Amino acid sequence: MFTGIIECIGKVISSQRRGEVLAPTVEIPVDISDSRIGDSFSINGACLTAVGIGNKSISFEISRETLERTTLGSLRIGLPVNIERALRISDRLGGHFVTGHIDTIGDVIEVATSTETTRLRIRGGSGIAPYIVEKGSICIDGVSLTIGTCQEDVFFVHLIPHTLKNTTLQYLRAGSRVNLEADLIGKYVERFLSLRGLIQPKGNEIGKDLLQKFGFM
Q1: 102-127 pLDDT tens trace
Q2: Residue ranges per domain, the chain?
Q3: Band of the pLDDT at 204, cuts 50, 70, 90?
Q4: CB 156, CB 145: distance < 8 Å
Q5: Are 101 and 183 in contact (CB under 8 A)?
Q6: CB atoms within 10 A of CB 209
Q7: pLDDT at position 211, please?
Q8: DSSP assigned state of 205
Q9: CATH says 8-85 is which class?
């Protein structure tokens, strides 16, 4: 479990194919002396298991399933990545509950920068559309963000300068692809209501009005 609060930006220093598995090593510019093999790390929002630990680096093995459902298949040497270590019970929850299980890959449609904020317009696709709720939470490449306005599968998020400076979202441009994880609560709400026959989960029933009607907002 993660929070979507990025600890640092790392850099891919090696990446090898081993059959269907991609094995990258990521340089991490923070103290990882308390990390162990088997620990979970969020790399651009995807939960990966550490299989090797160096002085300032972590090695991973990425399965075919993860490569097909995330943008991690495009990892290459020199690429910056967002890094967050797994949440500890004693930690503050600064963002929202994030599992590191990517729902879909989104497409950045527009990046609009003003003097104070940067606005991203993203198309998430029909699979994630039911969980995109105005003022709800979403995780983009591992970053916990609040959804602004949304219409069907297209939504806006606004980034403050601090977020841009401390995450890889600063490198996004129109046409970039991003890992998206919808808020966990929405998925449980849909399952709860569908099992009780209150909705038929066809992809468009969960929204702000329905959540308010049943007391979830």
Answers
A1: 999 999 999 999 888 999 999 999 88
A2: 8-85, 104-213
A3: very low
A4: no
A5: no
A6: 9
A7: 65
A8: -
A9: mainly beta
19: left (phi over 0), alpha (psi -120 to 50) or beta: left
- pLDDT tens digit sequence for 35-75: 999 999 999 999 999 999 999 999 999 999 999 999 999 99
Give pTM, 2 decimals.
0.88
* CA atoms in the 13 A half-sphere facing the CB of 180: 27
Side-chain-side CA neighbours of 98 within 13 Å: the count stands at: 35
Residue 134 to residue 157: CA distance in whole angstroms: 10
State which amino acid sits at residue 111.
V
Closest CA to 204 of 186, 192, 217, 179: 186
Same fold, 8-85 and 104-213: yes
**164-167 CB contacts, 8 Å cutoff, 24+ apart:** 164/118, 166/6, 166/8, 166/9, 167/6, 167/9, 167/82, 167/141, 167/142, 167/143
Query: Which numeric CATH code is attached to 104-213?
Result: 2.40.30.20
CB 186 within 8 A of CB 130: yes
